[in-house]
Amino acid sequence: MSDDLLLDVRDLVVRYGPVTAVDGVSFSLDAGETLALSGPSGCGKSSTALAVLQLRRPAAGHVRFEGRELTNLSDSELRPLRPRLQPVFQDPYGTLSPRHRIRDAIAEPLKVQGRWHPGDGPARVAELLDRVGLDPAYGDRRPHELSGGQCQRAGIARALASGPRLLVLDEPVSSLDPSVRAGVLNLLADLQDDLGLGYLFICHDRAVVRHFADRVVELREGRVTSG
Ligand SMILES: Nc1ncnc2c1ncn2[C@@H]1O[C@H](COP(=O)(O)OP(=O)(O)OP(=O)(O)O)[C@@H](O)[C@H]1O
Questions:
Q1: Taking every annotated instance into account, which residue ranges of this chain make up the domain ABC transporter (predicted)?
Q2: Lower CB density within 10 Å: C or N end of the chain?
């Protein structure tokens, strides 16, 4: 077993009633590595991501994160681990509450984790905005006052506020204008270099996958076909 092993998924099965969406999928991912899940629509990419995040409990199989088996933990046992595995979804406007200013959305994980101090909390939020390439003044805005690319950057800042080790990136640039995709992918690459994050990267665009991922696991009808 690699010392850097971050995520180990074995024989994963995800069902929705009679539908088996994921049928015995296995892969592993090291810290600092990007593993792409690729394949046609409906092959089980998002279901795999949700099961890794334990947002959809698998019907069978194992998800070990930082050496801990997640599948048999209760919701309350999972809670303290959740900050370390964070999702970034396709629709950035769906991730951030429309009612809250960006700075409050980024401050929330810090507050929930008891890492908010009035003295330096606002500066930490400004630092996170700056880290994702947004002027800290954007903290005053609400999601609908940002472009799609800016909003996705704000979502990434919120994920970073939790102090993650793994980001589960489910089509993170698919809803963005082609002209801003490269900027967000470059940001993710920089963050990975700086922070040693592991990325489980879901993307249907083969050109993006080839460019961005270290390894690719190809799925078809819920099974691994290569990787
Ligand atoms: N909530 C659900 N209820 C019932 N079936 C579902 C549900 N979510 C997904 N499925 C089914 O599970 C299978 C896998 O879907 P999933 O969304 O994981 O695939 P995907 O590869 O991410 O597809 P896409 O690229 O279109 O997002 C499909 O047959 C889909 O119809």
A1: 7-227
A2: N
